[in-house]
Amino acid sequence: MNKAWHRRTAAALACILAAGGGAGWLAHARLQQLQAAFETDARIVHRLLSQRAVQHDAILSTLALLQPAEPGQGGADAALPRLPSVYPQILDVLRRPADGAWPAAAPGLDTAEAASRAAGHATLARPDLAAGRYHLVLASTPASYALHIDLHATVPQGEWPMDRAASPVRVTLEHAGQTFTIQSGHLPAHGWTYGFRKTLASPSQPLDVVARRVVGWDELPWFAMLGWCAATAAAAVAMRMLWRHRVARRRAEELLRLGQVARLNTLGELAAGMAHELNQPLTALLSGTQAAQRLLGDDPPDLETARTAMARAVEQARRASDVVGRLRRLVERPDLAGQAQPLQLPAAVHDALHLLEPECRAHAVVPEVHAEPNLPAVLAEPVALQQIVHNLVVNALQALEQVPAAERRLELHLTAPTPGQVQLTVRDHGPGIPPEARERLFEPFYTTRAGGLGLGLPLCESLAQAMGASLQLAPGNGRGAAFVLRLPAATSKP
């Protein structure tokens, strides 16, 4: 029973692990999908913003290349007022002539110009990311130029990979502790966090593109996960039903096999009993005819005829006796000792209880198996041993029918009382066996149960003796009855 409980527990754990593993895999796949989408969008954002930054560099470089050698000759200076209309992110274009200064409204550009001249490329100046503004200064000769850039207009709306209003991804530009939020996103307090940070591909505008995504619990594929769990549970139920059907079929086949063997053995016991019962009257007939032969031999009248007739009667009686003897020898149980092999007694007991599990449930009996540790193997014939255990347990269940269900107990004790011997004791807590019946329990055709044949215990005793074991009724000590099967240990085989 404990093994059955362990099997059910193991099956339940396997079902839980399968359901949990499948649901976990679905959740993991969803998280990987969201992460891949996030990283793809972040890379697209970085590429688009880098293109705009490079565009700003190109505009400044073009202005520097196209400026006139002499003041007042037009060239790039003529296009300056038109640039903000062409490029909406450019708020203003500033110019410092060769002999002039930067507008007073934009202080600090001198420093940026010196840094640009030293670096050989444009330089970021006067960053105000909170307002979304910064200047980009390029030192050139004779004049230097600066762009006043609006970050709000820098974002390419038509090519943006996300819905800026609904996307859960937060996108910002960061520089020197300042932050410009391009896309606010929605960041749950708890969940799985993905991050992306990469500087724009322009040395003049070292702004970091920072993207962050938090996947909340509500974004997991709960319906798919619950569906998987339901499918796993349904599959487990179906497998359990199939397993129970298979176990029931195998149990029925084993019981049928045991029943066939039992019927054959019972038939042998019946024939042996009949032979035993017929042998006595035949012996008496033989003795009577022999005496009559002697008497008739002293009678003068027709002595020869009487002697001949009685001789024929004696001959026929002897033939009948020989026939009965041959029948008895034919049906006598073969020697099972030569078929004995090492067996584990606990396994045989477990197999018998497994076959009788429905009967135990029907009788509201839970067998209690107590086995000593490290029991040696026994020498027995497998079918005979199983049949003995089966019959003893069935007899115990039938005895327990006579007591209330709450008082029914069936105990099986497996011990090694002496070296070279293993003992099985089957004890029930039924009404017990009357004293007058204890001496005749193993006689063929004797029974204390209505409808019984009285062949079960004699058959078990014969099977035990045939394979070198013994079966006895334990002395009465307390409630119920106890039968003791003593088997030789495998190590004791000569």
Structure description:
This protein is of the alpha+beta class. The protein has three domains: 2-219, no CATH class; 238-332, Signal transduction histidine kinase, dimerisation/phosphotransfer (DHp) domain (Helix Hairpins), CATH 1.10.287; 338-492, Heat Shock Protein 90 (2-Layer Sandwich). Helix content is 50%, strand content 18%. The chain has twelve helices and 15 strands. It has helices at residues 2-66, 76-79, 83-86, 109-119, 151-154, 222-298, 303-331, 345-355, 357-362, 382-400, 435-438, 456-466, and strands at residues 90-96, 123-128, 133-138, 144-150, 170-175, 178-183, 192-199, 208-215, 341-343, 368-371, 378-380, 410-415, 421-428, 470-473, 482-488.
What is shown here, in short?
With 494 residues, the protein is of the alpha+beta class. The protein is built from twelve helices and 15 strands. The longest helix has 77 residues.
